[in-house]
Write a structure and sequence with these properties.
The protein is built from twelve helices and 13 strands. The protein is of the alpha/beta class. It has two domains: 119 residues, ATPase, nucleotide binding domain (Nucleotidyltransferase, domain 5), CATH 3.30.420; 210 residues, Hexokinase, domain 1, CATH 3.40.367.20. The protein has a six-stranded mixed sheet, sandwiched between helices. A five-stranded mixed sheet has the order 3-2-1-4-7, sandwiched between helices. The protein has a two-stranded antiparallel sheet with strand order 5-6. Helix 8 runs parallel beside helix 10. The chain is globular and about 60 Å long. The protein starts with a strand and ends with a helix.
Length: 340
């Protein structure tokens, strides 16, 4: 048996999990969540966690980081933390320490999911040794892929969410022009549309175009958020409010916002699928999809996914699943640690 430490490290929250690895698989022994901003570094969080868990020092550790990992180092976007595997191993007394991108962790985590953790949008025709793809809208838009090497899959993160947003119809062309003018930029990434912030941007666009009357309650939440622009702490979450109103069908403007979001999401997932042909499965991660499941299942997502002209028949054979388990990244960090 081997003692492992897995971590999901974000600018707001850090989750640590102590795991026992054996021939029977992985068993969670202890888990804690901490406010990242309350600590100057990851080391004191881990030390506090291990003291509470009353355990010996783990042999291996893997931390999933919300940001790029370069040469075994990572700098968190919203924190003044600079993490280095060599320093972490030395200060924590852990023999093997690894840092991986949070979306790479999602890729590894796929192999720790059960059928109950997935909702299938398209069964497709699964191919055992084919590539796999992961895409997930949350705060941003993550993308990654998995390639079979020997008996195991190797996980590769990417920055595909920063590729250009590709409008497909007149309304989306207007949205692109709106984003370019509003932010005074030369190009707009797909993440500006397919993300939590993207939901708010779409709402602002449709509101300003007076596509539908604005619900006073939702409108006030969006205005509060706009007034808090630039502040580290925000009291309003317009994306969540818009999504809830769309689900409840209580606000036409919110419904149209989420409709456009889902269609753009499906189109970008289809773009990723065209580049990889992931007949091993395309997995939709991130926090947004599980919260708007009925709207992801109503056909708009998959119609945009497969609407690729002559390539439609290829995309109709790709299995597409939504990941319901929001701890998939933590599961992946543990599985990655077990490989060290």
């Amino acid at each position: 048996m081997t003692l492992l430490l897995a971590g999901d490290i974000g600018g707001t929250k850090t989750i640590l999990r102590l795991v026992e690895s054996s021939d029977l698989g992985l068993k969670t022994l202890h888990e804690e969540s901490y406010r990242s901003g309350d600590f100057p570094d990851l080391v004191p969080i881990v030390q506090k966690f291990l003291a509470v868990a009353k355990t010996s020092t783990p042999e291996k550790a893997c931390f999933a980081i919300a940001g790029p990992v370069v040469k075994n180092t990572a700098k968190l976007t919203n924190l003044a933390w600079f993490l280095d595997t060599e320093r972490l191993a030395q200060e924590l007394g852990i023999v093997s320490v690894s840092l991986i991108n949070d979306f790479a962790a999602v890729g590894y985590g796929i192999f720790g999911l059960t059928k109950q953790d997935l909702l299938t949008l398209q069964v497709g025709k699964h191919q055992a040794d084919a590539p796999m793809a992961v895409i997930g809208a949350g705060t941003g838009l993550g993308q990654g892929f998995l390639i079979k090497q020997g008996n195991q899959y190797q996980v590769f993160p990417s920055e595909g969410g920063h590729a250009d947003f590709a409008p497909r119809n007149e309304l989306e062309f207007q949205l692109l022009k709106y984003l370019l003018d509003k932010h005074d930029i030369q190009r707009a990434s797909v993440e500006r549309v397919v993300s939590g912030l993207g939901i708010t941007s779409i709402y602002q666009f449709l509101r300003d175009r007076k596509v539908a009357a604005e619900n006073p309650e939702i409108g006030q939440i969006v205005r509060n958020w706009e007034q808090e622009a630039g502040q580290a702490e925000k009291t309003a979450d317009p994306g969540a409010a818009i999504g809830s109103a769309a689900l409840a069908k209580s606000d036409r403007l919110s419904e149209q916002t989420i409709q456009l979001f889902v269609e753009a999401y499906g189109a970008e997932a289809g773009n990723l699928a065209l580049k990889l042909l992931p007949y091993g499965g395309l997995y939709i991660a991130g926090g947004i999809a599980p919260k708007i499941l009925p709207l992801m299942q109503n056909g708009s997502f998959m119609l945009s996914f497969t609407q690729k002209g002559r390539m439609r028949s290829l995309l109709e054979e790709i299995p597409v699943h939504i990941i319901l388990n929001q701890q998939v990244g933590l599961i992946g960090a543990a599985l990655s640690a077990s490989r060290l």
